[in-house]
Design a protein that fits this description.
Order of helices and strands of chain B: HHHHHHEEEEEEEEEEEEEEEHEHEHEE
Largest sheet of chain B: 14 strands, mixed
Low-confidence stretches of chain B: 1-6, 82-108, 133-143
Oligomer: heterodimer
Radius of gyration of chain B: 34 Å
Strand content of chain B: 25-35%
Distance between the termini of chain A: 8 Å
Mean pLDDT of chain B: 76
Mean pLDDT of chain A: 80
Strand content of chain A: under 5%
Distance between the termini of chain B: 74 Å
Order of helices and strands of chain A: HHHHHHHHH
Number of helices of chain A: 9
Helix content of chain B: 40-55%
Chain lengths: 193, 349
């Protein structure tokens, strides 16, 4: 656990609700997206994330987290989502839930992929309004360039410019992200326990 | 690559069209040449393709993530847990009260039966009100149809059960009428701008109503803008009938043509043309007239067959039908008159 996370975790263990809320809000989208990836149900995904956080809050005093807090919660969300899926398939028979001293399992790569997605989606949300609108219509509504131009009253050239702008930005996010693992490795080396 | 101005050397026009599957044959050839020219190019395109396809799949979920709302829900649940404990205490008190009540009931069964009857009547009344509300809501929905609205800056695609779609621009309201796609296909454009892509169904006409006027579609793609003063229709593909429902006056609009109806004056405006270019190089008048009829959806009649073989060269670029006819007449020293909506051309005497 790096020093910053360790401070947060100590505060949460002392039942500092502000530290808990800050951590929750900072990472909520990552955990929510992860749960959605399994459940395809935003309502249930929110419930799963909150189940995990309530459990962490209630059992903070006895939880022994070896890795990072974020990874622990991430993996708890994955397992809790799998349990939900399993519940759907096999009624009330449940797999073991994450419990103190037993860290749930999930691929580290999977968390990185989801973190990248959060960054990409945040970048889309930060696009200028018209640019985001064109990008959404093109990628998610499957509209042709001419159709978008007609609907928004702009030229095809402008439509292309907006999509180009969005793609350039997303590609930059991707490129920056790909240069991160080296730094993450160095940080982990220095802060390993 | 310069990080401050990344990728400016890439053929973005081609890349964007390739991702959308909209490359023309010439563009496809150029794009293939660009891909073949280096492994870097192929790598870049693969990354962009990955971003475009797999990278975006969960964005719809991301948009529904509401950290503040979820946090409130979490707080409520935590308070709820405490509340449940209190409720448990309260439940014990209720049970004790029930026991006392049961003893009293044993003493006075008749009174208890009376009490039960009152309770049953109360529940029956509640059930009746619920049924009335549910039934009323069903009736209300079935009578009013399904309504859609977009906010400022919002654009929305509404798929319809027959395969047609409505693209709603910002601040637009439409209503899909009850029974859509059963006997007919009716919608109401209440306000704003909407683009309709209509699936052709022979026995079920597609009609967009806008108060005094309506659009009857014949399988096409068109945009309507409705404001307080006017209703403007622009046809992108196919053909529609723009009808004044009170007088029955009808304008047939073909591809590329737009026309407005002015609500306060109850009249159609002058038809206009968008995005068209017509070139007639050394063509017979007969061929030119046929081209104009096709373009504008108007009828042209030539007064004699000799005149029909006269040849002319004209280039039209967005002119109205009236102006196009005047240009033709000036080129061949003709004049025209209009009878029952038909333009009749004849030699000047």
């Amino acid at each position: 656990m790096n020093p910053n996370e360790e401070n947060i975790w100590r505060s949460i263990q002392k039942q500092d609700s502000q530290a808990f809320e800050n951590f929750y809000k900072e990472h909520y989208k990552l955990f929510f997206l992860t749960a959605c990836g399994y459940l395809k149900d935003p309502g249930l995904a929110q419930e799963v994330v909150n189940d995990v956080f309530i459990k962490v809050w209630q059992e903070a005093g006895t939880l022994n987290i070896q890795s990072s807090l974020k990874s622990y919660i991430y993996r708890a969300v994955v397992n809790r989502s799998l349990n939900e899926l399993d519940k759907g398939k096999r009624g009330k028979l449940r797999l073991g839930e994450p419990s103190p001293g037993k860290e749930p399992f999930a691929e580290p790569r999977e968390m990185e992929d989801n973190e990248l997605k959060v960054r990409l989606y945040r970048a889309i949300d930060d696009l200028p309004e018209q640019c985001r609108k064109v990008f959404m219509m093109s990628r998610f509504d499957g509209l042709k360039q001419q159709e978008i131009a007609n609907l928004l009253g702009i030229s095809i050239k402008t439509v292309k410019n907006h999509i180009t702008h969005a793609l350039k930005l997303l590609h930059k996010v991707l490129r920056d992200w790909n240069s991160l693992p080296l730094w993450i490795g160095v940080m982990n080396y220095f802060f390993r326990r | 690559m310069d990080p401050q101005s990344p990728y400016n050397d890439l053929p973005w026009d081609l890349i964007v069209s390739a991702l959308q599957g909209e490359l023309s044959p010439e563009e496809a050839l150029l794009f293939q040449q660009w891909l073949a020219s280096s492994a870097d190019n192929r790598g870049t395109y693969e990354r962009l393709q990955g971003l475009w396809k797999e990278g975006m799949t969960d964005y719809v979920f991301y948009r529904q993530a509401n950290a503040d709302g979820a946090w409130k829900e979490l707080q409520q649940r935590m308070v709820g847990d405490g509340g449940r404990n209190l409720q448990e205490g309260g439940k014990r008190a209720e049970e004790e009260a029930d026991e006392i009540e049961a003893r009293v009931d044993e003493i006075s069964e008749g009174a208890a039966r009376g009490k039960n009857r009152v309770l049953m009547m109360k529940w029956a009344a509640v059930a009746a009100v619920v049924l009335l509300l549910v039934g009323g809501e069903w009736w209300y929905v079935s009578q009013r149809g399904q309504q859609y609205a977009t906010a400022e800056g919002e654009v929305r695609q509404v798929p319809l059960p027959d395969g047609s779609t409505v693209g709603m621009s910002e601040q637009t309201q439409i209503r899909v009428e009850p029974g859509y796609n059963k006997t007919d296909r009716k919608l109401v454009l209440i306000s704003g701008t909407a683009m309709f892509k209509v699936a052709h169904v022979a026995d079920r006409p597609f009609v967009v109503e806008m108060g005094d006027v309506s659009i009857k579609d014949i399988g096409t793609w068109f945009t309507i803008t409705r404001s307080a003063d006017s209703i403007k229709v622009l046809v992108w593909e196919g053909k529609v009938a723009f009808v004044d429902d009170k007088t029955g006056e009808t304008r047939e609009l073909t591809e590329g043509r737009e026309e407005s109806f002015y609500v306060a004056e109850r009249r159609f405006g002058e038809a206009g043309i968008r995005h068209y270019q017509l070139r007639f190089d050394d063509q017979s008048l007969d061929a030119v007239a046929a081209g104009l009829e096709k373009q504008f959806g108007r009828k042209i009649r030539l007064s004699d067959t000799v005149m029909a073989q006269k040849r002319l060269t004209i280039h039209l670029n967005g002119e109205t039908f009236e102006d196009a006819i005047k240009t033709v007449c000036a080129s061949l020293n003709l004049e025209y008159r209009v009878e029952n909506g038909v333009y009749i051309l004849k030699s000047k005497e």
